[in-house]
Input
Amino acid sequence: MALACFKLPEFLVERDYDKCINCRVCERQCGWEVHSYDEEVDKMFADTEKCVGCQRCAVMCPTGALVISPHPGRYREHGNWTQEHLRDAIRQSETGGVVLAGSGNDKDYPVYWDKLLLNASQVTNPSIDPLREPMELRTYLGAKPESIEVRDGKLVSQLPPQVQVETPILFSALSYGAISFQAQEALARAAAELGILYNTGEGGLHHDLYRYRGNTIVQVASGRFGVDPDYLNAARIVEIKIGQGAKPGIGGHLPGEKVVGEVSVTRMIPAGTDAISPAPQHDIYSIEDLSMLIYALKEATNYQKPVSVKIAAVHNVAAIATGMVRAGADIIALDGFRGGTGAAPKIIRDNVGIPIEFALAAVDTRLRQEGIRNRASIIAGGGFRNSADVIKAIALGADAVYIGTAALVAMGCTLCQKCYTGICNWGITTQNPYLAKRLNPEIATERLVNLVTGWSHEIKEMLGGLGVNSIESLRGNRLHLRGIGLTHGELETLGVRMVGQ
Amino acid sequence: MNERNNGRRAVRIDATGLYYRDLNQLVREAISGGARRIELEGVMGQRYIGTNVYECPDLGDVEIHIHGVPGNDLGAFLNGPRIVVYGSAQDGCGNTMNAGEIVVHGRAGDIAGFSARGGRILVRESAGYRVGIHMKEYGPHKPVLVIGGSTQDFLGEYMAGGVIIVLGLGIDGPHRAALVGTGMHGGAIYIRGEFDRDRVGKEVGIVDPDAADMAEVEEHVRAYTDNFGGSAEEIIAGPFSKLYPKHLRPYGRLYAY
Output
């Protein structure tokens, strides 16, 4: 029996009828069916309760007649019982279900990037102007040998496989199924234009995207969806997904409604069945088992590709990471607790895992202490919002970063957090052809390229200010960072000094 | 050593003391060089046999005969060849395999057939824990796993497709595996002989197989007896139970939207 709904609307839709021309754009743009037109009175109406606040109608309205704002009607304010706590408890008392959420942890935890400040050269060493002088962002991902031998100016040692990227910013795992084909194609095309990599996630590789193989990371996760030798060999890097920052320790259920048409073909499962990714990979219960899969993948790709292992940033991340490196991982991908997702139980998204800043610092420190930092590259992900976050991560020890949410924002995402419903007015996290078609892959590609190009320019400027001409010179150089407003314990774990020191 | 065998180019490789990577490289080179039948002698624990031959041509035509005990992940990601083991297989046999056949004249360890999407695995005797977890099928790909004896717990957990047949030959008493088919949402498990119905997952239904089911079982039982001997008729006489998923979407009602 459906129980009566006691929820207040979250958003208020206000229409300026002096401006509204009844063009019905808002009605067509809204997959939530908020707007409707009443012919009898020749007037547009809005069902405020259905609005998720994605702002699609407001930005598409040709006359600027719409304003969407947080609903002023609130439950009585309570310091402990926030509006969100009330809403979720009401929702659960009506359904008995697990509350889902999209996007990343949106709670007010400290963002440590904002408490780290970069250095700049003054007087004693000259800064470099990247507009006049070369500035190197090129990065090589993969295990580096203990030593190399050079004879007659030529490298004679055989290096483990290296993957070259032109800037240390990669698109993180976003699977086809979670996002539309148009969105994934845009990521692939942008990666190809930028000389970087995108990541298929655990959704298989659509046959039309094999042409971007030179810029593809493929994932092998607990469901093994779409994984076959063609898939593994189409990639530059094969990534074993153990965990994800948005939902450490749990698996995923792509609901049967989303396993339609090409999604079913690409995942290689029948249409309409749930795509269930178990919480663990059942062939990995230990570091030794992880090693077994790493080398199985190396055998399956004839040792031509680095194998990455992605984990969520959790409490003992440093010890786990050293086990991963010793198990044979060429790349360690760390995903902090602010990392996004298409769907996660909100209680997990908001309460499990640790910030990427600490995980990254702890792992880099531990691998250096054990003398094995060269044996794996580190890719950090989970909440990178701008180029300053990226460059600070490099200084803390990352080789490159993964951006997911930032890439979605470039394509139009406004973080309404409703990805799990399959309705996305921006055409990104939907398999509804009517909605998906509005995302033009060409335009989305251009926007992605613009974002990463802009960030890369900013990184060059900041590097120049530091007086270094290569991202290599910054990697793990924490002397370029200072902490502000941090405790001694925090500074110690981050391995940075306090401002003024 | 090269020789002709039934018109197929055969290659014999002595695996004694070889590191797995070197052995697998030799196998790869042999198949790339046109060998269709590989005899591996003295195999002792080498992993991933049959995994690295992906780019070799006409893999469906290749047979790898293993004398000894191959190591973990035998035929992981296998995509065409037929592997025959004259001995037992260790853990991960047929892990995520896509096509081909693995015939084990002995036992198989844990997670045999894990996440397989196609091909067939025949195990003469029993297998370990977590066998056939998350097997799946798609289009023409339908994996089949036949276990001659019994298995340990978690058989067919999260199973999404394909067929598992457990024959119960030579076992003492009923099947003892617990938590069979937990989270199952596709495929079928056929168990011959007695088992405790309370030990299967709550997502699993149990029925007597119908004629179409038994035709499928018979096809694979005959493959079993063709390889290992015994009377197909006696085995087919059963009794078999069919375990099937009650729902395609076992967790469809778990969430609050």
In short: Chain B touches chain A through 49 residues (CB under 8 Å). Residues 18 and 46 of chain B are 8 Å apart (CA to CA).
